[in-house]
Design goal:
The chain contains 16 helices and 16 strands. It is of the alpha+beta class and about 500 residues long. It has a domain at about 1-70. The longest helix has 20 residues, at about 455-475. The radius of gyration is 25 Å and the shape is globular. The structure holds zinc ion (ZN). This is Galactose-1-phosphate uridylyltransferase.
């Protein structure tokens, strides 16, 4: 394939996926040529490649490296590749106009359009994401989702050294700021020339809608505040979550908690995550129903889930907001030392909630997951955080996505779990020290039954069992007699009548 063929093919692909129309193709080609510092063009006689947009981008970026237009380093390749795609993507105002024209017919049509756009524009790097290992595992709580995340960009020591050399910058202030829209990128900050955001209003404020570049589940979206301000769970949060699912009834939306350890990785920019996917938690059933005296029209229940979840269901938004706010206020101040729950230590708050909202026909549904981030000498990473014996699988924060039943596990596990299989099969292996106790326990439990055909399935199932343990560790009320009684003690403080 020569360079003219590659440019022609890329433009043809952009037309095929409706990023541009045939009418735009000469214009787009000329912009691509300009970025590649090529000032002539020869119409190729035959097509050069069967590859898709990512492969063609690779070819063009490699060409630019060979011709010394850019240095062959991660950030410069990323910047050029994103600029090349930007040649095919309309301005934000045009995208918003199209989105809302479709939205007036159906919200689903609008999100279908924007999701496809975000993928074709290579903003969502589907080729990398397809490398992830995904599977489901049946448990007593339904099917948990497991993802081994292999889609992180591959950076070498030279790339990382460049990032360290970069002088620190305050623009954009973080990865979630609106100022990323169209931002070229730099070492240590991803290229976003091909990034677009949908404008919306929630509770009288400007908010923005985009997809996650890492899509961990179908149509994984991010809803972010126009203002760069800290994550906060309060009455307005609940209201905004409900307003969002009213706006997009085919999506759920939830927020990470607003405290370290139990929150997500970004606490510094107020944002939510949602999508068109039903997690095991959403399918979990009511285990114990009760009514709140002040909100008699609502259905309230403890959900059958390894973490501690109160579910509210109702037809009136004001009731839902009022009840959730009431539960939040009670929980923030709640201590029960028999259950190791302490609301404050020296004025530092520990209790918060991970809230999730969805619409079921006319009914609103809110899941309030009770969280506590207190640490002790015995559990320096958190009492309600994965304990030491499961940290060889997962030691990161248990945020919104994990709470709902999807484990996002580190890339190292891809090769490490193969070694666990080898261990079980009695083959030569290089088992990591921290997996040894687990592998020995599995070897005892599965003695004489492990074969090359079932080893992978056994290890995968056992990883899911560990993830279930991770969720149980993060649950503030344990799923035993004492824990259930403690949960009911808290419920009783809400002003309830049993039903
Ligand atoms: Zn920000």
């Amino acid at each position: 394939m020569n360079i003219y063929q590659a440019v022609t093919e890329l433009v043809a692909r952009a037309v095929a996926v409706q990023l541009i129309t045939q009418e735009d193709s000469v214009y787009a080609r000329n912009r691509i040529l300009h970025l590649l510092k090529i000032d002539d063009f020869q119409e190729p006689e035959e097509s050069g490649s069967e590859g898709g947009i990512p492969e063609l981008l690779d070819f063009l970026v490699a060409h630019a490296c060979e011709h010394k237009l850019i240095e062959d380093v991660f950030d410069q390749r990323d910047i050029l590749s994103s600029q090349l795609m930007d040649c095919f993507i309309p301005l934000p105002s045009v995208i918003n106009e199209r989105f809302y024209a479709k939205f007036s017919r159906s919200p689903r049509e609008a999100t279908d359009y924007f999701y496809a756009l975000s993928q074709h524009s290579n903003y969502i790097q589907t080729r990398q994401i397809d490398r992830n290992i995904n599977y489901k595992a049946a448990t007593e709580y339904g099917e948990l989702d497991i993802t081994i995340n292999l889609s992180k960009p591959e950076k070498n020591p030279k790339d990382i050294a460049r990032e360290k050399l970069m002088k620190s910058s305050n623009y954009p202030r973080c990865l979630l700021c609106v100022e990323n829209e169209g931002y070229a990128g730099r070492a240590g900050h991803p290229a976003r020339a091909n990034h677009r955001l949908i404008r919306l209003r929630l509770g009288g404020e400007p908010w923005y809608f985009q997809y996650s570049p890492y899509v961990y589940y179908n149509e994984h979206c991010i809803v972010l505040a126009g203002e760069h301000r800290d994550m906060k769970i309060d009455r307005q949060t609940i209201e905004r979550l409900l307003l969002f699912v009213d706006f997009m009834p085919h999506y759920f939306v939830g927020s990470n908690a607003d405290l370290p350890i139990v929150g997500g990785s970004i606490l510094s920019h107020d944002h939510y995550q949602g999508g068109r996917y039903e997690f095991a938690m959403a399918k979990a059933t009511d285990e114990y129903r009760f009514s709140l005296r002040d909100f008699p029209l609502l259905e309230s229940a403890i959900v059958k889930w390894p973490m501690s979840v109160i579910r509210l269901r109702g037809e009136h938004m004001a009731d839902m907001v009022g009840a959730a706010d009431h539960i939040l206020a009670k929980w923030r101040a709640y201590s029960d030392m028999a259950a190791h729950i302490q609301a404050y230590t020296q004025g530092t708050p520990h209790n918060t909630i991970t809230p999730i909202a969805r619409k079921r026909g006319k009914m609103w549904e809110l899941d309030l997951v009770l969280r506590n981030n207190r640490t002790t000498e015995e559990h320096p990473m958190g009492i309600f955080h994965p304990h030491e014996d499961v940290q060889h699988i997962k030691k990161e924060n248990i945020g919104l996505i994990e709470v709902m039943g999807l484990a996002v596990l580190p890339a190292r596990l891809e090769s490490e779990l193969k070694e666990v299989e080898n261990f079980l099969l009695g083959r030569e292996q290089r088992l990591a020290e921290y997996h040894l106790a687990w592998a020995e326990e599995l070897a005892r439990r599965y003695e004489g039954t492990v074969t090359p055909d079932n080893a992978e399935a056994i290890v995968r199932r056992e990883v899911a069992a560990k993830f279930l343990r991770v969720l149980e560790d993060a649950g503030v009320f344990k799923r035993n007699e004492a824990g259930v009684a403690a949960f009911k003690r808290f419920i009783a403080t809400l002003g309830t009548e049993e039903s």
